[in-house]
């Protein structure tokens, strides 16, 4: 359904997308996971024909995005990261605009409009001008709009950003149903790890490059088992001791010492009885995609603004 | 699909147009004020052998002015759409960019015709009589002027990504066009350098045609005005559509 080969997009000096290749099958939910500025939106913009790639190839629904953009546009639906509603029109008028421009027949349009507006809980407010909506309501309306013409491939750029869990659940249920009924293919980006776990496969992207591509479970397996966090009276000494006694992946930060381990249930009692530094607490959890990301890239996904700017600068320097 | 896109783009703009109450009030109040104040103020100093009083002379000029502003604003609303994201909704839709550009142009024309009709209702202020035939001719001329000017605006808007250039356009294109169109004074007595600007200004042909149809006073034959406007409109549309197709 989607295929890219060595896709690149450079913005004067910034390598936003840098040699990305992947393919997505029909009916798959494919996730693009990466920090701010990783190149997720740029990739989507190329796939939906809004940007032309600097080099490389991209196909959607069998059509090349540069050679056959109109066929591509017929196949896709989009929910943009940034707002794209006309806020002087009502919810219903926004949907009508969309329905007409995508050539959805009037009776089907009327029926779907009701179904979708009810799904996102905006039916009562349909006659209100969008300007009077809250941020979350606008987002819900955009999602409803993107689904109105029943696209073959749906692109969702951080679709549920800022939505409450209940609404998120609603939307995911609807999307999963569409996939079952119609085999719709979904390409989504996110930097929410829990949302990424809804995907069949996940590509992790950082600095415009793919660093991993697999199912969520396989990705988690990249992390050596469970993650144990230990706090002691003297973390520095404890780290050294662990390093001497066990052949483990050890990392220390303000939160404590983090270990990755296969059979944690057996390890913990043995560890406690033989450890000489005083232990304040032990915390055990299953690996998440957060850990995977950290492992693969060496940094956390939720970068603060300042460090994001540093990264920008670094990349500018590294660019051609 | 082409005409559906054109239709829905016009529909949206017209809906927005009628939703802005302040805009509608303004579109009645502004020309009324111009006619009442300027028309009275300059009446005493205005001497023209063939035009009656100044307010009447001014009347077609005010229609021309309104068409100019309506057309340009309607075209540059594309910049707003780009800024607020709605343009993307149009650009990823399975319709050609040409249909979007044509939709925008026609929507500018319709808005100008609505505004023009409002001013025609005000003709009683200046004591000008409009027969149904004149009204139809005026609307047709408005359509033509607006077609030319909206395409020009669209050409500019397709090159502009922010509002910064907007003031530049207003000061160095729209205002001179407006002042040197013969809307306020007869062009026959102007110095040569000004005349040459008037001669390439599409709005001066528009105002001339309007004045000819409404008052029977003109510089050029109606056919000349129409030909110039139509030629300008066709070339501008072609260039604007090309530019719009190329823009990212
Ligand atoms: N039009 C543009 N001009 C110049 N640089 C751009 C442009 N669009 C994106 N970039 C740069 O390309 C890089 C990737 O941006 P992109 O929007 O694809 O990131 P993202 O992964 O979607 O991030 P986020 O999670 O913040 O949405 C960034 O460094 C950004 O500054
Ligand atoms: Mg993004």
Largest sheet of chain A: 6 strands, mixed
The low-pLDDT segments of chain A are 303-320
Spell out the helices and strands of chain A N to C.
Answer: EEEHEEHEHHHEHEHEEHEHEEHEHH
Multimeric state of these chains? heterodimer
Overall strand count of chain A: 14
Coarse shape of chain A? elongated
Instruction: Determine the N-to-C terminus distance of chain B.
Output: 22 Å
Low-confidence stretches of chain B: none
Task: Write the CATH architecture name of the largest domain in chain A.
Answer: 3-Layer(aba) Sandwich
Task: Summarize the biggest pleated sheet of chain B.
Answer: none
Number of strands of chain B: 0
Question: Approximately how much helix is present in the residues of chain A?
Answer: 25-40%
Write down the Rg of chain A: 23 Å
Write the layout of secondary structure elements.
The complex is a heterodimer of chains A (320) and B (248).
Chain A: E1 2-11, E2 14-24, E3 29-33, H1 40-47, E4 55-60, E5 63-64, H2 69-75, E6 76-79, H3 91-101, H4 106-119, H5 135-147, E7 153-157, H6 165-182, E8 185-190, H7 193-196, E9 201-206, E10 209-214, H8 216-222, E11 226-232, H9 235-245, E12 249-253, E13 256-261, H10 264-274, E14 279-285, H11 289-297, H12 305-318
Parallel strand pairs in A: 3-8, 3-9, 6-7, 7-8
Antiparallel strand pairs in A: 1-2, 1-4, 4-5, 9-10, 11-13, 11-14, 12-13
Helix pairs in contact in A: 4-5, 8-11
Chain B: H1 2-19, H2 21-41, H3 54-84, H4 86-91, H5 97-121, H6 123-126, H7 132-159, H8 164-179, H9 192-200, H10 202-215, H11 222-246
Adenosine-5'-triphosphate (ATP) binds at residues 11, 14, 16, 34, 36-42, 81, 191, 312 of chain A.
Question: Which features would summarize this protein structure in a list?
Answer:
heterodimer, A: Rossmann fold, Alpha-Beta Plaits, 27% strand, elongated, B: 248 residues, mainly alpha, 11 helices, 79% helix, binds magnesium ion
What can you see in these coordinates?
The complex is a heterodimer of chains A (320) and B (248). Chain A has 320 residues and is α/β, with parallel strands linked by helices. Chain A folds into two domains: 2-219, P-loop containing nucleotide triphosphate hydrolases (Rossmann fold), CATH 3.40.50.300; 224-286, Alpha-Beta Plaits (2-Layer Sandwich). Chain A is built from twelve helices and 14 strands. Chain A has a six-stranded mixed sheet with strand order 6-7-8-3-9-10, with helices on both faces. Chain A starts with a strand and ends with a helix. Mean pLDDT of chain A is 85; it is low at 303-320. Chain B is mainly α. Chain B has one domain (2-246). Chain B contains eleven helices and no strands. The longest helix of chain B is centred in the first third of the chain and has 31 residues, at 54-84. The interface between A and B is medium-sized, with 28 and 24 residues. Adenosine-5'-triphosphate binds at residues 11, 14, 16, 34, 36-42, 81, 191, 312 of chain A.
